[in-house]
């Protein structure tokens, strides 16, 4: 009888354990020249490679092929709120259908997708004695241009859209012409649904009751 009860309780706990989600949400922020862009993006993680050069081209015309090979279905949702554009039409909240491309590049070295990405050190990247970081524009003395590539997160928008458009690595520009640099990019912590919490509570309560009976 006890075995059956324990098995049942274990089944409840296993059912309550959240499954590994295939879609992962990230928040990001851009800022510069009096403008800001705050957003969220959802990636289909079964399609994303890390390290890797991940391109989502929804244009249907393969116009971003220079950035890599298109991965259909890579981005499932995108929302960006822009403030501070000198062209007021460039302010507001834009969604996935306002953009026609997304580039997420960690091909130089893998990054930890469960931590803040901006500022993460890239192993074995850059000149000896220097530590290069994802999300930053490194400066090499005497080089032309002085900014060196360390990866990328870009949003591309068509000319018919008022959404911000990628202009340089880790940089997007508002409709008014204000360039903004990426300041943060991190995963959203998964929160169990109420039903999951209920199952967990039932499982733990059952185990506590069983333990109390055994003591009695």
Short description:
By secondary structure, this protein is an alpha+beta fold. Helix content is 17%, strand content 31%. It has 2 domains: 1-18 and 192-216; 22-190, no CATH class.
CA radius of gyration is: 23 Å
Question: On the 0-100 scale, what is the average pLDDT?
Answer: 84
Largest sheet: 7 strands, antiparallel
Range of helix content: 10-25%
| Uncertain stretches of 5 or more adjacent residues | none
Strand percentage lies at 25-35%
Q: Give the strand line-up of the largest sheet.
A: 5-4-2-1-12-11-10
Number of helices: 2
Please, what is the oligomeric state? single chain
Structural class, from secondary structure content? alpha+beta
| Elements, N to C (H/E) | HEEEEEEEEEEEEH
Extended strand count: 12
Which shape, going by the Cα principal axes? globular
Number of structural domains: 2
């Amino acid at each position: 009888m006890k075995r059956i009860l324990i098995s049942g309780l274990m089944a409840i706990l296993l059912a309550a354990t959240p499954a590994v989600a295939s879609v992962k949400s990230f928040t990001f922020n851009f800022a510069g020249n009096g403008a800001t862009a705050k957003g969220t993006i959802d990636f289909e993680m079964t399609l994303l490679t890390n390290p890797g050069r991940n391109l989502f081209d929804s244009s249907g015309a393969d116009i971003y092929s220079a950035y890599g090979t298109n991965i259909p279905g890579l981005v499932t949702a995108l929302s960006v709120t822009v403030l501070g554009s000198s062209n007021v039409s460039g302010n507001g909240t834009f969604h996935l259908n306002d953009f026609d491309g997304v580039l997420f590049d960690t091909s130089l070295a893998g990054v930890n997708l469960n931590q803040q990405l901006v500022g993460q050190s890239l192993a074995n990247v850059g000149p000896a004695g220097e530590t290069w970081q994802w999300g930053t524009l490194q400066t090499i003395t005497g080089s032309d241009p002085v900014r060196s590539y360390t990866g990328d997160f870009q949003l591309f928008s068509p000319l018919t859209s008022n959404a911000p458009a990628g202009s340089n690595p880790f940089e997007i520009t508002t409709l008014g012409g204000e360039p903004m640099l990426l300041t943060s990019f991190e995963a959203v912590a998964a929160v169990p649904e109420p039903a999951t919490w209920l199952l967990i509570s039932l499982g733990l309560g059952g185990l506590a009751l069983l333990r109390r009976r055994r003591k009695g």
